Amino acid sequence: MVGMEEISLWQQVCRQFDRAAAHTKHAPGILAQIRACNHVYRIAFPLRRDDGSVQVIHGWRAEHSHHKLPTKGGIRYSMVVSEDEVMGLAALMTYKCAIVDVPFGGAKGGIKISVKDYSTGELERITRRYTTELMHKQFIGPGIDVPAPDYGTGAREMAWIADTYQAISTDKLEALACVTGKPVGQGGIRGRKEATGRGVYLGIREAVNVVEDMTPLGLSAGLGGKRVVVQGLGNVGYHAAKFLQEGGAVIVGLAEYEGAIASDAGLDLEAVMAHRAATGSLLGFPGARDLPDRRAALELDCDVLVPAALENVITAENAPRIRAKIIAEAANGPVTSDADNMLLDRGVLVLPDIYLNAGGVTVSYFEWLKNLSHVRFGRMDKRRDQHIFGELVGALQRLTGMRLRHDEVVDITRGPDEEDLVNSGLEDTMVMAYQEIRTIAKRDKVDLRTASLISAIDKIARTYSELGIFP
Ligand code: NAD
């Protein structure tokens, strides 16, 4: 069993792909092309550290599939980054984009560093140099390959990438579309930072609303009162926890790097975050109990477990001790394929990463569209919508004799702004995709991960056959 667990993320993704491919009728050649990783660029460059010493920095960028362009995928800064890992994550991006109908191929980048070991100046030099290297080999560009934030990176790093690209590129007009997840003032889009976590919440909400799927788990339908544990309170985990709590779920456990806490009565997320900011740790939060270590949170009795840190946290070793009825994969690859099989055998509902965390790339797509069109969403139509809604409300009041309060009229007639439109597009995407993969799961009697991959494989195969490359 241990030997089986030691396979890389790339091999795990290939295993999942093969399992799904067996349910399709595509020719072996087309399946082999969809599965293959098209390009991998391995980079090493020197960094002059603040103390004057020189260190070699290692990085990668993998472009898994060019069936649609540009390719798209985050850049992570982590000590466990490797060539196999970025290939596996790039493949997940290909399938993820297909599942939510975002017209991109998949990519992923990584730099093997631990962010906390570097000053801001050093991180900026590393990011700018990495961008320059990508440019030299044509591994970045609005129509080529468009990075985004991932583990260890955020809006700040994306701003450095955009600035470096804009300074060097001759294509000044489209340059900002070379990367997404930028700060709003640098061509970013409102709602991107929260998008992955919001998508995780929307996906969980869709799943728990289906009575037929909740009954076998011994759960009632609806998010209200569901007991949730979240591992990792970074961008994805924090926002997922926030929206879940606002949606009526009760957070009974939280884990971060330094440890984990639990409370059956529920944890107030903002109060926990304030406690962590003040003390540097989750531990010692008033009213909660400290767990023996951070991994113990995964084994808490709960309805929904949300791993939102890194891959391979639920393995064949700890899977038998997982008590959650639903595992919501906010992180990429948190459940190994052996653990996945064990959980499925036990009837645990696994909401797969390739669907559940696709909110980030969905809103990245909106940001890319905004950059290429050079206009904020809602700018052209907000006032017009406001006017039409106002006319409608006026007509209804005249016809029915009903009188609305001024604040109600303002609320109803308010035209949508950029954030409203982004959130509405994200919600529609997550809801439609869930219905699609659930339908396939029922039709083919498979789990949701396999169903998601069947959906992705069918869509990508269609692109190739429309190109006339394969029959
Ligand atoms: P992040 O760097 O903002 O946050 C990760 C958090 O996890 C950090 O706070 C870190 O301290 C914590 N952590 C690390 N190891 C832990 C452990 N063993 N136990 C508990 N906490 C731990 O990263 P992120 O952007 O939130 O990404 C998290 C995951 O979500 C990754 O798998 C990433 O690939 C995936 N993802 C991110 C996005 C995005 O838009 N950022 C989109 C899709 C998927």
Description of the structure:
With 471 residues, the protein is α/β, with parallel strands linked by helices. Among the domains are: 39-190, Rossmann fold, CATH 3.40.50.10860; 194-356, Rossmann fold. The chain has 17 helices and twelve strands. Strands 9-8-7-6-10-11-12 form a seven-stranded mixed beta sheet, sandwiched between helices. A five-stranded mixed beta sheet has the order 1-2-4-3-5. The radius of gyration is 23 Å and the shape is globular. The model has no long low-confidence stretch (mean pLDDT 95). It binds nicotinamide-adenine-dinucleotide (NAD).
Summarize the structure.
This protein has 471 residues and is of the alpha/beta class. The chain is built from 17 helices and twelve strands.
What brief labels describe this structure?
471 residues; alpha/beta; Rossmann fold; seven-stranded mixed β-sheet; five-stranded mixed β-sheet; 17 helices; 12 strands; globular; binds nicotinamide-adenine-dinucleotide
Low-pLDDT residue spans: none
Oligomerization category of the chains in this entry: single chain
Strand line-up of the largest beta sheet: 9-8-7-6-10-11-12
Secondary structural class: alpha/beta
Count helical runs. 17
- Please give the largest β-sheet: 7 strands, mixed
H-E string: HHHEEEHEHEHHHEHEEHEEEHEHHHHHH
Note the beta-strand portion. 5-15%
| CATH homology-level superfamily of the domain at 194-356 | NAD(P)-binding Rossmann-like Domain
Question: Judging by the overall fold, what is the CATH architecture of the domain at 194-356?
Answer: 3-Layer(aba) Sandwich
N-end to C-end Cα span: 40 Å
CATH class annotation of the domain at 194-356: Alpha Beta
Bound molecules: nicotinamide-adenine-dinucleotide
Give the overall silhouette: globular
Rg over alpha carbons:
23 Å
What share of the residues lie within helices? 40-55%
Mean pLDDT: 95
By CATH, the topology of the domain at 194-356 is Rossmann fold
